[in-house]
From TrEMBL:
This is Phosphatidylinositol-glycan biosynthesis class X protein. One of its GO terms (cellular component) is endoplasmic reticulum membrane. It is a single-pass membrane protein. GO terms for biological process: GPI anchor biosynthetic process. It is found in: Endoplasmic reticulum membrane. Pathway: Glycolipid biosynthesis; glycosylphosphatidylinositol-anchor biosynthesis. The lineage of its organism: Eukaryota, Metazoa, Chordata, Craniata, Vertebrata.
């Protein structure tokens, strides 16, 4: 029976790509459905590890200009927290249909890397992005019961409405690929040198400020 179901259900393919360089990137998600889903909302649900985050304020601005539609859980996060003090985030990214391909959907969302602890023997930390789960929300049509099952997602079919709708996910998990973000980190063996230089610079600047205050300041 399992073989028959997998034969009848064409795999949904997912690709994701990190664009740009540095700490501020764009995450491009592309989905090709295994069957026609006309009239359905298509979304990618992804869990972001502590080493990467989406800025909720930036996301709100993009949504106001209809550039990106997404729901972030939680919607309030500490943007300045380092990787070792942050937690996972859940992002539901609504995808737009490709005009040249009825089964193809895509969307881009800005992501940002967090600062990591200094490492020993390496100048970079690896942040692994698992492949997103593809979700469909069909309020006016029906999906094949052999290929899709109800998903526990408490979010409307669109970021523009509050009406409830049932989301569905694929029953069998296709082999998706992970993406890896390489984040530059400091070397732990340089910590003594960095601390000494920081202390020296702080003392020098403090001395200059104190000298200027004594020379030009007016004290009551």
């Amino acid at each position: 029976v399992t073989l028959d179901v997998q034969a009848a259900c064409r795999d949904t393919t997912v690709t994701q790509e990190l664009l740009k360089e540095g700490f501020h990137r764009d995450l491009l998600v592309k989905v090709e459905l295994g069957e026609d889903a006309g009239g359905c909302a298509v979304a990618a649900q992804m869990r972001l590890p502590p080493g990467i985050y989406v800025d909720p304020y930036e996301l709100a601005t993009l949504q106001q200009h209809n550039l990106t539609k997404a729901v972030l859980f939680p919607d309030v996060i500490d943007l300045e927290a380092p990787e070792y003090m942050a937690r996972d985030l859940l992002l539901l990214l609504f995808l737009q249909q490709d005009a040249r391909c009825p089964r193809c959907f895509r969307a881009t969302v800005p992501v940002h890397a967090r600062y990591h602890r200094p490492a020993e023997g390496t100048e970079e930390a690896l942040v692994v992005l698992e492949s997103p789960e593809v979700l469909l929300c069909c309020c006016h049509s029906h999906l094949s019961a052999e290929c899709w099952e109800p998903a526990e997602v408490d979010t409307p079919c669109s970021s523009d409405t509050t009406s409830p709708c049932q989301w569905h996910s694929t029953k069998h998990k296709p082999a998706y690929e992970e993406s890896v973000l390489r984040v530059p980190v400091g070397l732990r063996e340089h910590s003594s040198l960095v601390c000494a230089l920081t202390l020296l610079t702080t003392g020098l600047c403090s001395g200059l400020i104190l000298a200027a205050a004594c020379k030009y300041g007016h004290f009551l």
